[in-house]
Specification:
By secondary structure, this protein is an alpha/beta fold. It has ten helices and nine strands.
Length: 279
């Protein structure tokens, strides 16, 4: 599959896009961008031997691709997200006429207790942090709620961007901060070495291993690249500070060094994951 960027919760002060814009962005996320982290999903599932005994809770599940991959391995999966439009697309994917019916449940908002459901033994947060200032803060409440629903000793997977020198996309993401306000509120920042460990520590989790995975971002053409990057939500503040055409122009210019002779756009990236355990 072609690799993708990563979804982030909207900044607390962000104005909501119009319903039409939100639906279009969600569709671009599902059709262009979500696939980019498939190598990360597969590496994590392989390492943790996800299969028929796995009861997985996916935080920030987007339009459900990571859940489908887990379900295909035999896992029972529940996904939750605050993005209503992305969840609607996930439900389309899980519909009976979309193919084989798998054991997947979708929840809007943060996870909640269900006496009829056995505890989870794997929690995943496949929204990479270490890209925008404060991007781990939105994960905290959902992670705290999720940990309460898991068995003791369950695996919790946190993911983040690798160092900027190993992520070609980092230069393109700087556009978001440069076009926002002078203070660059919510703008791009380089990933820090202990980002994931800090989140795990605040959640009361015990680190139990880590790894790095190459996830190149590949697009069929420049238009697809711009649409895919915009679908991440990372450029929302920049659009409000300037306008849509200006942001698209700046992204296109930043992508120019990554455009190949055949018109495709290719950016090598490395993502890191941390496996922690509930106490």
């Amino acid at each position: 599959m072609t690799p993708t960027l990563v979804q982030h919760r909207p900044h607390a002060t962000s104005a909501a896009p119009s319903p039409a814009e939100a639906c279009a962005r969600a569709r671009d996320w599902a059709e262009i961008q979500e696939r980019m982290l498939v190598p990360l999903y597969e590496a994590v599932y392989e390492r943790l031997e996800v299969g028929s005994g796995t009861r997985l809770l996916g935080l920030g599940c987007g339009s459900g691709l990571a859940l489908l991959i887990a379900a295909a391995r035999g896992a029972s999966a529940t996904g939750c997200d605050t993005h209503r439009e992305r969840l609607a697309l996930a439900r389309e994917r899980m519909a009976p006429d979309a193919g084989e019916r798998r054991d997947v449940e979708l929840v809007e908002g943060d996870p909640a207790a269900d006496p009829a459901r056995p505890p989870y033994n794997l929690i995943t947060a496949f929204q990479p942090i270490g890209c925008a200032a404060g991007d781990s803060e939105g994960l905290g409440p959902a992670l705290a709620a999720a940990v309460e629903l898991a068995d003791h000793g369950s695996a919790v997977v946190l993911t983040g961007w690798g160092p900027p020198e190993r992520c070609a996309t980092s230069g393109v993401l700087r556009v978001a901060g440069r076009l926002t306000d002078p203070l660059r509120t919510g703008g791009w920042r380089p990933a820090l070495r202990d980002d994931l460990e800090d989140v795990a520590s605040r959640a009361g989790l015990k680190p139990d291993g880590s790894g790095r995975v190459a996830c190149p971002f590949g697009y069929a053409d420049m238009e697809s690249a711009v649409r895919g990057l915009l679908s991440t939500g990372l450029y929302g503040a920049a659009v409000r500070a300037t306008d849509q055409s200006q942001v698209e122009k700046e992204i296109t210019e930043a992508l120019h060094p990554h455009r190949r002779r055949d018109g495709t756009v290719w950016m090598p990236n490395v993502f890191r994951y941390l496996i922690a355990r509930t106490r």
